[in-house]
Each structure stands twice: as structure tokens, then as C-alpha cells.
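Model it.
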Amino acid sequence: MERILVSACLMGRKVRFDGRAKTSSDAWLAGWREEGRLVPYCPEVEGGLPIPRPAAEIEGGAGGAAVLAGAARVLASDGSDVTAAFVSGARGALAAARSHGVRMAVLKEGSPSCGVLSIYDGSFQGQRAPGQGVTTALLEQHGIRVFTEEQLDEAAAYLRTLET
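Modeled.
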């Protein structure tokens, strides 16, 4: 059975920066949970950040690949550099994915860790820019396909291709 890495906040875990969850009630996720496919993971908490914590954004909206290459930092709203925690959490996500044979993930859109299509632009003004979070970039660099919580039909179609 194919396993799926999933953002822990989508599964109801209160791990987000504001101490809340972003629980998804999507039927696909509920079904996959019942089947025992899901591997919940929060890269920010696993990287050592507390709950709650200051919001964080990738400087200049540069994207996760730039952070992994050392060309951009992840900064918290209080000005602290939290890059090391984000990179550590991303590496932990990759290790968890590998240990469970994961080939796909469903991650929280917009997050500096988990954003798939967009991230916040680094201005802390609520503006998004196209780009990926640090964890998404690392997973995709290693061949793991990542979907947002809004792409679950597409994720389900991809899952079917993995199981044939």
C-alpha cells in the first residue's frame, strides 16, 4: 500500500505558528486516513520550533530551493533567522518519507515549509508569490510528488498511477 506524507495541521494537529490546526474535512484524506496510508508530519515543529511561534517567511519570496542552496533565509516576524530549523525539518520530512516508502505528499499551501504553488513573499504583509516552501522543494528534488490540500482529486489520480 502506498503511504502519503501529509501536513500534520491538515490532520487536526495544533502545530501551526499560531497554535491552531487547519483541519481538512476532505473525503480523500478521510479515506486515506482510514486505510492507514497517511504519515502526518510537521517540518517546523520537527525542526525544533515551538508552538506557538512567530510567523516566518522566506526572504524576498525566493522559495525553498534558494533556502536549500544557501541563497536565501527564512526569517521570523520578530527578525530572527529560523533557516536552520526549516532546513532540519525538511530533512526530517525526507527521512520520514523514505522510511515509509512515500512517493507523494499532501502539504499545506502557502506555508514557508509546505507551500507547493505559492508562499508568502517575505514582507509580512500577507502577500503571496509563486514558489515552494523548503520541505516541498526538498521532497520534489528527491522525486516525491507534492500536492496542496486543494489538489486532492489530482493527488488521488496520481496515487492510482503509483498502484498500477
